[in-house]
Amino acid sequence: MTRFNLPKVTHPAILMLVCLTLLSTTLAAQETVKIEGLIKGRSGDNMIVQTTDNPDLVVELTDGTDVAQLQGMFKARNKKMSMAALIPGLAVKVEGYYHETRLIARTVRFKGDDLKQAAAIQAGMHETQQQAQQNTAELEKHNAELKAQNEALQQHQEAIAANKAAVDAAVARFGQLDDYYIMDEVTVYFDNGKTAVDPKYNSQLLALTEKAKTVNGYMIEVRGYASVTGSAAMNQKLSEDRANNVTNILIQQGKVPLTRMLAPGAMGESEQVGNAKSTEGQAENRRVVVRVLQNKAIAGA
């Protein structure tokens, strides 16, 4: 606060002249300024107002700042309002005076319609922010799930590679044997165009696996076949899927180690055992043959 050293005067006229001079100096320093603009933001007692001359004018609100809403047809009446009504997006008229670079507000006026519009904008922004936060949370969740799926896929691929290596090793070992005995055999039949294993065969397949475990050095061979009905490519695929489905039962339910399994054979239309021109013969050809094998050299040993 500026201090003024008053000269010691005793004459009333001179004293009055000095007081008037000081008062005019103070009023000149607090010359009233009027601005119009849009509130950009609030921070404590300050609000940032965008005007045509200044995009970031700092307006300071004090305990003495008079905030009111203009009412009436000619906007001549003022309705006392809380400073909480001064929200971003609100168009305001401010009267006050400058102190350094800040505008100290004496009065702040705004229209009711402008307040409603600003409130609507704020509500929309809040909803948009909530949606953005929700979208961000969902995106992070999706990324986490995707990462977990990628890790699971990598583990699955590694398991497949390990299984393939085990099967290849078993095939190579079996390929070194000159001859073998068929220790047991089960045939699974399929409906036309179908690859799913009828549950009635499960008990036969599981019994086969139990018997196989009693055979020294056993191997299990699975071969899938199809009838000649349809295209050769389709029948090749049918025989492959049938062999794979039976193999899955042997491994998953029968607990047969992969090292004991020969790679499933897809024989397609080859080795037709039934009359391909009859319904009964075609049914006999839609099959998977499962055999328990033992190499003669191992049996002899």
CATH superfamily of the largest domain: OmpA-like domain
- CATH fold topology of the largest domain: 60s Ribosomal Protein L30, Chain: A
* Inertia-based shape: rod-shaped
Strand content: 25-35%
- In CATH, the architecture of the largest domain is 2-Layer Sandwich
Unreliable segments (pLDDT under 50, ≥5 consecutive)? Answer: 172-177
Count of folded domains: 2
- What gyration radius follows from the Cα positions, in whole Å? 46 Å
Taking the sheet with the most strands, its summary is: 5 strands, mixed, barrel
Side-by-side strand order of the widest sheet: 1-2-3-7-6
Helix tally equals 6
Pick out its properties.
11 strands, four-stranded mixed sheet, single chain, alpha+beta, 25% strand, five-stranded mixed beta barrel, 6 helices, 301 residues, 60s Ribosomal Protein L30, Chain: A, 42% helix, OB fold (Dihydrolipoamide Acetyltransferase, E2P)
Summarize the structure.
The protein is of the alpha+beta class and 301 residues long. It is built from six helices and eleven strands. It has helices at 12-29, 112-175, 202-212, 232-252, 279-285, 296-300; strands at 33-43, 46-50, 57-60, 66-71, 77-80, 91-99, 102-111, 180-189, 219-224, 265-266, 287-295.
